[in-house]
Amino acid sequence: MPKYTIAIASGKGGTGKTTFAVNLAYVTNSAVTLMDCDVEAPNAHLFLNPEWVNSEEVAVLNPLVDENKCNGCKECKNHCRFNAIAVLKGEPLISLELCHSCGACLLACPEQAITEFKRPIGTIKEGSLGQIKLLQGQLNIGEVRSSALIDQLRTKQVDTDLLLIDAPPGASCATIAAIKDVDFLVLVTEPTPLGLNDLKISIQMAKFLNIKIGVVINKSDVSSAPVREYCAKQQIPIISEFKFDPNLAKVYSYGQIIAAKLPEYYDQFSRTLKRVKEMIR
What is the DSSP code string of the chain? Predict the structure, then answer.
């Protein structure tokens, strides 16, 4: 059971969320688990290049109708709150993409005409680089059940004191699945009108979930004032600001870990992690 569970999220993609998460893991200097829950586009492994040790398939349960037993009564449709079942000319049609695997249709069917089958939706991989353990979810191409895969990923046993979660961007069901029950949420933003707008939405989400929040401003410059003003008004701490730096961008573009290549950033990431831990206590 981790002592600290910290999620890193962002209101939009491309703010530096994954880069921040990977570098926090690197500066820990002790065993740490990094969980890549951005399952539609996981890329923490591009920086870590871990040695993969395990891969497992993740599946969800979907209903299967026995047409010989079905009498077209529509009880399955009436009990499906996700509108995943339609009955046309007495025959049920099931949308696997809308199905949430709740099993209500199976229980509701008076003819016991419905069973369930397992449908693969993605994989969970385990790897490591030094003291960093990486757990990564990868959603199958064309699949939409990202939250279900993230739920399975979040149940994986973590045996380190620190768990860092790289969450999907935005404020969708997938993001909520990744950040629920964490000790602290770091929101990485950039000083643009769009970045501020999406930051506001993410802050509303975190407040609704009653999660402690801190903000990191990436590519900070004179245009960061509106972000600072908004955070001050909302009484949300700005944990750190990373100024726009061509050297930082160059290291990132080569898929390298910034804290490993630029000592000044190693110190900044270390201070940031220390401050987050202090805010959790």
Answer: --SEEEEEE-SSTTSSHHHHHHHHHHTT-S-EEEEE--TTS--HHHHH--EEEEEEEEEEEEEEE-TTT-----HHHHH-TT--EEEETTEEEE-TTT-----HHHHH-TT--EEEEEEEEEEEEEEEETTEEEEEEEEPTT---HHHHHHHHHTS---SSEEEEEPPSSSSHHHHHHHTT-SEEEEEE-SSHHHHHHHHHHHHHHHHTT--EEEEEEEESGGGHHHHHHHHHTT--EEEEEE--HHHHHHHHTT--HHHH-HHHHHHHHHHHHHHHHHH-
